Structure formats: structure tokens, C-alpha cells
């Protein structure tokens, strides 16, 4: 692996043997790999353009989270959306309500096989995010940016930004719209922190898949991760395989309700609603999953 044992003993130890899946993109990974879904991520959830139109690897031109970059050389991942970012699930109805670019953890070319390997016992999901000052978000909208999604479409936990989608649309953006928010399966707020610009915001969420609990860890830039919640029950999540799901990094922008649409359409967040079609972006690094039970 790419970790150097001599350095490991002096810093927070995340040993290579306990890493189930490593999404820290090596310098050797290319645009061609992104377009071909080769490497740690499946890149099919996107709009009509090639995957590398929306998912860009920044090489050595951009510095990833300083938490791991003395141990491992990784490329920053830039995710963007524009008005073409309408995902059409295989043979299904275009998701006109959303604009989205998702990259999904995979192993040996399979995302679902990985779920059964890394979502057992106790495992810890690490991820870091930074704003893209050139391509700002619109905080009147809700954004879902990191989540584990079982096949029922719920989220074991999620990292969210913006104003939560509501019908009818709230008259003003939420007071904490610009905060990074970690929510549990029932969408209860577990932790929030201001999404300050130009900084890496580091998270880890430790999940006990048997006891159905979550614990959130956080730090900014090069500070060590610290627990910011106790071990907290996540009782609405499903036990066993039904509760396992794909690990997504995403720029998923929900619509605002369009008052001119029918009430059925207004309730169909996936397919209807208002999107401005703006080009927006976020930066990601430091994605990996650690086995805690070992
Ligand atoms: C990938 O293949 C290796 C070697 O067969 C295996 O050990 C590993 O568990 C596989 N990973 C996934 C996610 O299937
Ligand atoms: C943000 O979204 C709101 C609601 O659709 C819209 O009125 C506003 O113009 C948007 N801002 C930008 C910068 O696109
Ligand atoms: C899980 O729950 C069982 C039964 O309540 C308890 O004995 C065990 O210590 C718990 N495990 C963890 C990791 O909290
Ligand atoms: C965005 O795309 C939608 C769906 O294709 C289209 O109806 C809309 O006019 C586009 N908006 C802009 C600003 O280009």
C-alpha cells in the first residue's frame, strides 16, 4: 500500500491492513479511468456528458486534506453539476428534478459487492470536503453530498448543505443553510459546522452495523479528528443486508417546488421542480473506509 510505516507510528494510525476501501485517488489515475469507471469509483450517476466532464482529478495542482497527505499522495476530486446533469437511471424516467454528479465506492468493479464487505461489524467512513469558490452553490436549495444509500433510497447517514427541501418551499433560506450538517437515517441533525471557505472540513462517521449506532468525528484542515457526538442510536436504519448500501460522494442538488406544477408533481422531488441550471462545484478528498472491529 502507499502508507509509510515509519511515519505511521508518530501520527494518528490508520493502518493499511484495516482499510476496507481506499478512495484516495492515486496520482496515476487518469481522465480515461474516470470515463471508464476504473479505480475506486463507479461514475455512471451523472448527466449526458462523459463522466470526466463532471468529475475532474486535479493532479498535483491542488492540495488535498492535510490530514493524510504526509502519508499518501492523493488527487483532489472536483465534482461539478450544470444544466446537463440530469441522470437517467437505466431505461427509466430522467431525474429532471435533480442536478447530480455522484461517484460511488466500488471494489473489483462492483459497488454492491463492496457493501457486504465493508458494512459489517463496526466500520468508519472518512471524507473531507472543501468549497469551490469559482463555482459556488445556491443555498436556497438542498444538497446531499456524502451518503450511504441502501436500495430503498434512504440514507444510513448523510452530509447535507443548504436549505432542506420542503413543500411548499420555505420563504427564506434556512439560518444554517451554509452549515455542513450530518443527519441520521431519520434525518435528525447530529452535528453541524459552518462551511467556511477555503478550508478542508474532515469528517468520519463510525457505524455499528449490528447495534445500529452512529458516531460523528470532525476537524478542520490538519487538526486531528475528534468525536463531536456520542455513540448515538440510529434506530430507523435496517439491520442486515437491507440496511447496507452504496457509499456516495455527490453533488446532488434538489429542486425548489414549482407552484405552477400540479400537487402530484410538487410532491415528486425527483422529477419536477425548479432548477436554475447553474454550474456549481465542490472539492473532495480523504475518502476511505476503515475496519474498526478488527
Ligand atoms: C476483490 O478481489 C479480491 C481478490 O479476489 C478479494 O480479496 C476482495 O475481497 C474483492 N473485493 C470486492 C469488493 O469484491
Ligand atoms: C438561487 O436559487 C433561487 C431560487 O430558485 C433563485 O431565485 C436565485 O436566482 C438563485 N441564485 C443563483 C445565483 O443562481
Ligand atoms: C451492542 O449491543 C450489545 C447488546 O446491548 C452490547 O452487549 C454490546 O456491547 C454493544 N456493542 C457495542 C460495540 O456497543
Ligand atoms: C435546463 O434544462 C432543462 C431540461 O433540459 C430545460 O428545460 C431548461 O430550459 C434548461 N435551463 C437552462 C437555464 O438552460
From TrEMBL:
InterPro entries xref list: GH131_N
Residues making up the signal peptide according to the UniProt record: 1-16
Residue ranges occupied by any Glycoside hydrolase 131 catalytic N-terminal domain in the UniProt entry: 19-291
Keywords: Signal
PANTHER family according to UniProt: GH131_N DOMAIN-CONTAINING PROTEIN, GLYCOSIDE HYDROLASE 131 CATALYTIC N-TERMINAL DOMAIN-CONTAINING PROTEIN
Protein name: Glycoside hydrolase 131 catalytic N-terminal domain-containing protein
Organism whose genome encodes this protein: Lentinula aciculospora
